[in-house]
Amino acid sequence: MNGLALLIPIALFFGLIGLGAFFWSVRAGQYDDIDGAAMRILLDDEES
Questions:
Q1: What is the pTM of this model?
Q2: pLDDT, one tens digit for every residue, the chain (48 residues)
C-alpha cells in the first residue's frame, strides 16, 4: 500500500511532463508540415 502512495504521484508527475512536452511541440509547430519531410527525402537536390 505504501508503494502505491509513492508510485501514483510519480506516475502523475511523468504524465504531466509528457503532456507539457506535447503541448510545447504543438505550439512550436512540430506538426505544421507533416508531409514536407516525407516529400523532401524524395527530391533529388544533386546538381551535376
A1: 0.63
A2: 889 999 999 999 999 999 999 999 999 988 888 888 788 888 877 765
